[in-house]
Amino acid sequence: MEKLAQEKKFINESIRKMQVENYLAQEFNRAGYSHTEIQRTPMAMRITVYAHKPGMIIGRGGKNIDRITEALKEKFKFENPQLDIQEVQQPNLDAHIIANQIANSIERGLNYKRVANMTIQKVMNSGAIGIAIRIGGKIGGAMSRVEKFSEGYLKYSGDTAETLVDIAYTTANVKLGMIGIQVRIMRELPSDRMISKKLMEGELNGSNEKETVERTE
To answer: What does the CA dihedral 144, 146, 147, 153 come to, rounded to 10 degrees?
Structure first.
């Protein structure tokens, strides 16, 4: 019975976190909202919100913070919630922000293929190693299907995928139904790839340096 009670509590907490995430995503959509992390501390419930434009979240004189804090108490029954707003320095490399941008564009009626291709170019031009976009649902017709777009180097499994690939999921609501969107962004190469790349560059540079030394002598 105790195990079942713990499992039920865990499930209820997961549901509440998802509800909070959805609520804050709607509230701060225009602020370049990324995601939220919730951590229970001995003194309070720490809620860290990541967004590209934190000033829009804080509001003049912190009015938005006060309003959202009260909403977290009333709607989600958090005791002593403490909001911490963090700025996303590179929004074009944040999978959550990119996924939300794609959803907003599709909801405005823009062609999903054009949106996906333009997004890929923007992300890659911002320094990403690789990106993959998956869009599924009734896109461009009454039949449901999945479209995939990708460019660059990307890992889908293993430690590298878990540590270096930023993954986000969201939905776009259109007349024909709900569109699912998945974005994966790899911001840097894994260490083994970096070593291989440096060795190749070193070999090339080393051969050139050797030729220069021989000619000097």
So the answer is: 170
Mean pLDDT for the stretch of residues 134-152: 91
**Closest-CA residue to 37 (of 58, 56, 54, 21):** 21
CATH of domain 2-87: 3.30.300.20
In which residue ranges of the chain is CATH 3.30.1140.32 found?
Answer: 91-191
Strands of 145-152's sheet in order across: 145-152, 130-137, 177-186, 165-174
pLDDT digits (tens, 9 = 90+) for 144-157: 999 999 999 998 88
91-191 placed in CATH 3.30.1140.32: yes
Query: Model-level pTM?
Result: 0.78
Residue of 150, 187, 181 whose CA lies nearest to 168: 181
Dist. CA 31–CA 104, nearest whole Å:
13
- What number of CA atoms fall less than 13 Å from residue 175's CA on the CB side? 5
Give 143's contacts (C-beta < 8 A, 6+ positions apart).
none
Phi then psi for residue 111, to 5 deg, are: -65, 125
Looking up tokens 């992300």, which residue turns up? Answer: 123
